[in-house]
Design goal:
Layout lengths: L1 H19 L7 H6 L2 E6 L6 E5 L3 E11 L4 E8 L9 E6 L4 E6 L1 E2 L5 E2 L1 E5 L12 E11 L5 E10 L9 E6 L5 E6 L6 E8 L5 E7 L8 H4 L4 E5 L2 E7 L8 E8 L27 E8 L6 H26 L12 H18 L17 H7 L24 H40 L21 H5 L2 H27 L1 H6 L7 H20 L9 H22 L7 H20 L3 H23 L10 H12 L8 H24 L4 H26 L6 H21 L10 H5 L13 H22 L16
Parallel strand pairs: 1-3
Antiparallel strand pairs: 2-11, 3-10, 4-9, 4-11, 5-6, 5-10, 7-8, 12-19, 13-18, 14-17, 14-19, 15-16, 15-18
Helix pairs in contact: 4-9, 7-11, 9-11, 9-20, 11-12, 11-20, 12-13, 12-17, 14-16, 16-17, 18-20
């Protein structure tokens, strides 16, 4: 061994002499081209110092004892002067590799460090598995004419190996990166890395293969392996299959020269300015590698969730088998007599009354043609209230039932078409996102809750995707229930057509089918979004929530106004505009946008108020202000409101919407899509509450099932919203700040609070839909001319 140790230095010195040749003139130019070569002595652990300029090159040969459980760090320092023209160049040669850096250690933003250190790569050793004596060669040179004082030292890193379950505290700075080695035990195939820090200095944490060179230098270190930016929390799931060659990886830590990559835009002013020497950016952190002792819970959670929804299906089918639909169970012994009497009444009324004149291009109950309306300059004839003092359902149900049925059947057809064309590119895009993560290793692309990600197949956060199964399962179940009711009502009309024309609310199921498809698609699109949550694809998670909210509002209105409803083309065109506005709000979340949105919101409320109050007789066009003025003028500016029950809902609804608009313009919430979604959900809640209160005021009967579904909807909405506000990530901030909001799993060691929101909100929507489906079951035996239109 001693012969080898003598042989290598001799060869190295001969190589240096041959490379630099003989010494020439001492002039500055010649000294730079042909400097003197000085062989320096230094021992391991000793602080070796010297002074150097362009006239010489200093060579060190340092012998050390290699141990596979430790690493060697080279520490260099210099005396920095502002008038210094050229830096020191440090070149460290191992047997199988070379690394180099300069002093002062500078960054692209101008920050300067007079000290720097690097860890020698173990893979450059001749024997990487057994202890032995080795040697490292260090060359120090400069082009600076004035002398520069420097020092260097080699030291051992004794805690270089990481172990499962053992925490390791360390310090790291921009000019002194650090990394650790971990080898998978034979019985462990994956581990969870948890890094915590008491400060928020921006740091890059990288998981790299055990190879040389180790990428621990500034920008290069952020493009290798799996990496994240870290403020105070960072976490990884690492699998042994990613490192098949050696079953080992390196965990690299590198502090960024500034916090620009980790702070929010509002906090950028807190970044230290460039040009400062030796800025104190020393991060104190602790790393822990945890074994996957609880990862088997993922399979338990999968089968438990599937089993729960199978039980719900079994319970639903059992109830449907035990309890026939209400339209199959309407006291059949009295229906034939009622049918005969109703037919006589309809025949007598048709002989005495004049038919309504309608215009297909307008959604009015009574109207003249468009030309007559424009030429006369007058308003359309007002619908008179009944003797009871209110407009009845019978007044707003004069169009042919089969015509309206076909009209509302267009809703699910349009919905299905939109769902197919919308979902296909979305699925392709998010799967490509997942492939990009795997290929680039950049885990800042997607905003996961890294403290609760459970990988399965190719999906990084399978638990976040799978928790959306409730929307899909309950959406299909709701479609089955609606189909059952649809068939029962069709059989009822076939047997008793006259009763179907005079009693109860006319049943149209097209919107219910569209709502069921929307619930299923919400699960699919939310699952796609959670494959890679980010600002770019957040609309995937909310688009069908907007559609569901609008369809619910239309359905409630359609229940008592079957003749006055928007066509599906108009409804979905409106929704397309809303989704476009949402996308604009995501990318241009600035004050001018919020003020513009608030103005449009208020003006839209005024237009829809006129449309609802005058029951479809107001045309929402670019001349809506003219039409609204004519209607108000002809009905009297200060006259008593003709439709008091409508005024009761429109006044508070407008107040709430104006409050929503002003809140957005003044406060400017963090997420515009969430704000807009709450606007629609708030309007839906107001309308539903108003509808139920009006039923109570008019003493309309509620069935047991409708009350049960309403109570279940309230329970699940209140509980799900609690978990919704427990935020675990946010795409509105930098990825490092978002990770500070991460939380551990709380259910079956698989589901976090947002997953629980997915499950509970799917039940909330399901029971809300069932509430709307059964809300008027108690008045199916009541004459329509006795039912108020509210």
């Amino acid at each position: 061994m001693s012969c080898k140790m003598i042989f290598w230095p001799i060869c190295f010195y001969l190589f240096v002499l041959l490379a630099h040749g003989e010494q020439f003139s001492d002039s500055p130019i010649q000294s730079i081209i042909n400097p003197d070569i000085e062989i320096k002595n230094c021992t391991f652990g000793e602080i070796c110092s010297g002074s150097i300029n362009s006239s010489s090159i200093h060579f060190y040969s340092v012998e050390y004892s290699f141990d596979p459980t430790m690493a060697i760090r080279v520490i260099t320092n210099m005396t920095y002067k502002i008038e210094q023209e050229s830096p020191l160049l440090i070149v460290v040669r191992q047997i199988r590799g070379v690394i180099s850096w300069t002093l002062p250690y500078t960054f692209s933003n101008g920050m300067v460090y007079s000290s720097a250190s690097r860890i020698l790569c173990l893979q450059n050793e001749i024997n990487r598995t057994l202890p032995h004596t080795s040697r490292v060669f260090i060359e120090i040179s400069t082009s600076n004419n004035a002398l520069i004082d420097y020092s260097l030292q080699l030291e051992n890193i004794t805690d270089f190996l990481l172990e499962t379950g053992v925490s390791r505290q360390f310090f790291v700075s921009p000019a002194m990166p650090i990394y650790y080695k971990f080898t998978f035990p034979p019985d462990i195939q994956n581990v969870f890395i948890d890094v915590r820090s008491t400060d928020q200095l921006c740091t890059v944490v990288s998981v790299q293969s055990f190879d040389c060179p180790v990428y621990d230098v500034s920008e290069i270190g952020t493009r290798q392996g799996h990496y994240q930016t870290m403020a105070s929390i960072s976490s990884f799931n690492v699998y042994a299959s990613e490192f098949p060659k050696r079953n080992t990886f390196l965990l690299v830590f590198l502090v960024k020269p500034t916090d620009a990559d980790c702070l929010n835009d509002q906090e950028q002013t807190a970044i230290r300015p460039s040009g400062i020497v030796d800025v104190q950016r020393r991060k104190n952190a602790t790393v822990t590698i945890q074994p996957p002792t609880n990862y088997n819970f993922l399979y338990i959670a999968i089968f438990t969730t599937i089993g729960m929804f199978l039980m719900i299906y079994f319970l639903a089918f059992a109830i449907m088998c035990k309890h026939p639909d209400i339209y199959d169970h309407l006291a059949p012994e009295h229906l034939p007599l009622l049918e005969a009497r109703t037919e006589r009444e309809i025949s007598e009324r048709e002989d005495n009354q004049q038919g309504y004149q309608t215009f297909e291009g307008e959604e009015n109950v009574e109207s003249t043609s468009t030309d007559e309306y424009e030429n006369s300059g007058g308003a359309i004839e007002v619908i008179e209230t009944s003797n009871a003092g209110y407009v009845t359902v019978s007044d707003l149900c004069v169009k042919d039932y089969d015509y309206l049925k076909q009209k509302f059947r267009i809703y699910p057809q349009t919905m299905l078409t939109i769902a197919i064309f919308y979902s296909l590119p979305v699925i392709q895009l998010v799967l490509q996102y997942q492939l990009n993560i795997d290929a680039s290793g950049n885990e800042d692309i997607c905003y996961f809750n890294f403290l609760c990600t459970r990988q399965f197949a190719m999906l990084t956060a399978f638990n976040n995707v799978f928790s959306n199964i409730g929307y899909c399962a309950l959406g299909v179940l709701f479609l089955i229930i609606v189909y059952r009711r649809d068939m029962a009502y069709a059989r009822f009309l076939a047997r008793y057509p006259a009763i179907g024309k005079e009693y109860g609310i006319p049943q149209h199921f097209g919107l219910f089918y569209a709502m069921g498809i929307g619930l299923f698609m919400e699960g699919l699109m939310s699952g796609c979004y959670h494959i890679c949550p980010s600002k770019q694809n957040f609309q995937f998670d909310t688009s069908f929530m907007f559609i569901i909210a609008v369809l619910n509002i239309i359905k409630i209105y359609q229940t008592r106004h079957p003749d006055i409803n928007p066509r599906s083309s108009g409804s979905f065109s409106f929704l397309a505009v809303i989704i476009l506005v949402t996308v604009v709000g995501v990318y241009y979340d600035e004050q001018w946008f919020w003020i513009t949105y608030a103005c449009i919101h208020i003006l839209s409320c005024v237009a829809f108020t006129g449309k609802i109050y005058y029951m479809g007789r107001l045309k929402v066009t670019f001349r809506v202000h003219i039409h609204l003025y004519r209607l108000v003028r002809e009905n009297g500016f200060f006259s008593r409101p003709r439709y008091l029950n409508r005024m009761m809902i429109l006044i508070p609804a407008n107040c709430v919407n104006i409050a929503f608009a002003l809140y957005g313009a003044i406060v400017q919430p963090e997420s515009f899509p969430n704000h807009l979604l709450f606007v629609f959900l708030g309007n839906l809640a107001i309308y539903l509450i108003y509808y139920i209160l009006m039923k109570i005021i008019h003493r309309e009967h509620f069935t047991r099932f409708s009350i049960l579904f309403l109570l279940l909807a309230i329970f699940f909405w209140s509980s799900s919203l609690y978990f919704f506000y427990q935020e675990v990530k946010s795409y509105e901030v930098q990825p490092a700040i978002s990770r500070m909001r991460n939380r551990a799993c709380i259910l079956l060691n698989t589901y976090d609070v947002h997953d629980i929101w997915h499950i509970l909100s799917s039940f909330s929507l399901f029971f809300s839909f069932l509430t709307l489906l059964t809300l008027d079951d108690g008045i199916r035996k009541t004459r329509r001319r006795e039912l108020a239109a509210f």
